[in-house]
Amino acid sequence: MTLHNANLTRILFQRAFAAHNAGTLDAAAALYAQVLALDHKHFDALHLSGVIALQKGDAAKAVELIGKAIKSDRKQQAAFSNRAAAYLALDNPKAALADLDQAIALSPTQAEAHYNRAKALMALARNDEALKAFDRALALNPRYVDAHVTRGTLFAERGDHQEALACADRGLALDDRKFEAHFNRAHALAALGRETEAIAGYNAALSLQPGHVQALNNRGNVQQHLNRYELALADYVRAAEIDPEYPRSYVNGALCLFALGRFAEAWPVYEWRFRTPELAPIVQGIAEPRWTGEPLAGKSILLIGEQGLGDILHFSRFAPVLAKMGADVRLKVPASLVRLLSGLDGVSAVYADHQPHPAADFYCPLLSVPLALGTTAATIPSAPYLRAEPEKAAAWAARLAGRPGVKVGVVWAGSAQKNLPSTLSMGTLRSLPLAAFAPLAKLPGITWVSLQKGEQRNELTAAKAAGWGGPEILDLTDDIGDFADTAALVANLDLVISCDTSVVHLAGGMGKPVWILNRAHGCWRYPVGRDDSPWYPTARVFHQATPGAWDAVIADVARALAFFTPSPSSPG
């Protein structure tokens, strides 16, 4: 390079750098390009051209340009850090981690490199290492707001919402206008059941970013959990106005409409569930055309079970309706439901999930059938529609023969709800501790029968070993293999008492008297302000007043049991 070219290169670079610092990115990029025309290996021009590409959202170009800079000088920590940021933007945390390790090797005291390394490790699900990286970043810079805030998301993912809250509070102590800190704090408060404070937290976040769709959606979720459906709906509508392609606001809005009994409005909006990552796979890869209400006489239709077992039991009532329309109705459901649902009227075949099935004329997700039928509260197909196998029911009758008094089945805990498009899992909120049932021991003339499955069943074993003072509960669930077995046992009971689980839908679908212990954040199927359900004529709902307050619910159940009389159709 001649002296003239060297001087021109230096002058052009200085101008480019000044333009870059001034924020005029296009001008800076053009000047960096002129530098590279004179010296194609100019490290700073390559590196900073890549930084501009990253600033403008072109992470792939940033990787390319910064990579060329690194080839010309592998001892520049900033280049490795910036290329790592580009790799993170490209969702390539493995490559980002390699660059960050190199950056830290070159300059171990750069807090930002440790922070970004923590983010890369989180993306790789290496959370224990990520925590150490966050801690190292904060040791180097205790006032690193982003490190405090993002560290909290790690604890939120672990379910440690108390520590997530503490992290958000530390971030806010350093910068009370940090949106992410307010947002994360509100999420932690909601997860801890501190809904009023959570709403205040989302209000603070939205005062900083009024159009933040997820904050609006999440505030709506908290309002919905407080049964403030109109306020929740307002948040979901606003979120949809800002981002018409954000599916969660539509799905959650539909749940509000269901709870308000506005079914005609809710069904079409609820179809947005198939745009969420959790439920999109339900309708992917199905060869049959989707049924949307076409005539079914002489046609076959495959109904696809979706979401939880309770949802499938709840909506399986629509299969006989389609059969009466002349359809050859087939179901595809989890294996634990195959035997039970094979007994539905008009159903010709039931296949387990992932089991091959013959082609049909149509398919329809089970929870979309009401949309195609135009179902309203007045046209809900009523129970009973589920039945036990006679031979199995007779076998249970023999085992329960001689048990005194009223036979009451009980379920105290639901499993965690996974793969559903909601902010908070209801698994814990809807469950009772077994100890809550202890006062029922005072009631005479009852044979208590456990219908509890899953890990929570072990609570009964542990309680008995510890000298359980509650009612004597007969546990025969070792002999329950699937829902057909459960149905056969339920057929021999006078009453089922359960928190909001699939057993409620089983008992309700069989027309069995079922008392639902409904959490304060009630399910839309059991509307607030009434003790019955439009879906199950034999249901009675006991609503919890505040989250975690089950004593009053159990006291109401005890008073009701004192006057309970088995129906003539019950085994008595």
Structure description:
It is built from 25 helices and ten strands. The protein has a six-stranded parallel beta sheet with strand order 7-6-5-8-9-10, with helices on both faces. Strands 3-2-1-4 form a four-stranded parallel beta sheet. The N and C termini lie far apart (101 Å). Among the domains are: 143-195, no CATH class; 281-379, FAD/NAD(P)-binding domain; 390-561, Rossmann fold (3-Layer(aba) Sandwich), CATH 3.40.50.2000. It has 572 residues and is an alpha/beta fold.
Based on the model shown, name its key terms.
about 575 residues; alpha/beta; FAD/NAD(P)-binding domain; Rossmann fold; 6-stranded parallel beta sheet; 4-stranded parallel beta sheet; 25 helices; about 10% strand
Q: In CATH, what is the homologous superfamily of the domain at 390-561?
A: Glycogen Phosphorylase B
Strand order of the largest sheet: 7-6-5-8-9-10
Total DSSP E strands: 10
User: What is the straight-line distance between the termini?
Assistant: 101 Å
CATH topology of the domain at 390-561: Rossmann fold
CATH architecture of the domain at 390-561: 3-Layer(aba) Sandwich
Structural class: alpha/beta
The percentage of residues in β strands lies in 5-15%
- What is the helical fraction, as a range of percent? 40-55%
Under CATH at level 1, the class of the domain at 390-561 stands as Alpha Beta
Q: Low-confidence stretches at least 5 residues in length (pLDDT < 50)? A: 418-427
**So what's the overall shape?**
elongated
Number of helices, where a helix is a run of at least 4 consecutive DSSP H or I residues:
25
Radius of gyration: 30 Å
